[in-house]
Amino acid sequence: MELLQEPGSTCRILLVGNSLANDFITKPQNVERLVFVDEQILQSLSSLKTNNGLLGIFKYPEFPSRPTNELPSFTLYLDQIKDPGNLGTIIRTADWFGIKKIYCSRDCVDPFNSKVIQSSMASILRVEINSIDWEEFHVLASENSIYAATPEGESYFHINKSEVKILCIGNESNGLRNFVLQDAYKKITIPKASNSKTESLNAAVATAILLAWKFSN
User: Could you tell me the domains of the chain?
Assistant: First the structure.
């Protein structure tokens, strides 16, 4: 439903289950073709255990052309994020903090995976996702601007957040790869309580904490 309500979105085909038929007596302006189907048919097509009554095919988002040889004032780089729920949540969190462009290693999960789209809650239409090799990305980055999130880093409490221009977040199980860590200007971490036995934070949760710190007044 969030995708339908997003300005500028174009739905090629919208399948509506019988339970929601009364909500779509009039075809939305951004829907090219509206089809009412039986709930069983909708369920057979859905990737969800319990569908939400709608299934749509949308046009890929188009973003304004930007220079490819320069980075935004703040950049989020994701290395080998594999869980679609994590990537979708990170995209949604980035959108919340006004980040409109994310760079991902080429072996991250497909940003247009259905679970990524679902968990991004329409932010996928507002945040541009760029797949890029680290070597290419590193050429664009200035040497003293790359900050790598890792359990072995320095507490972010001791970091001047205005200097953080690039934040790198790593794989859910293995963290950032060695070549990313080696190229980082500084390694930072989120300190845990002295009595905590938790080994690590979820990648999306860690991203949210660090972005909230970075963009807090």
Answer: 2-58 (no CATH), 75-215 (3.40.1280.10)
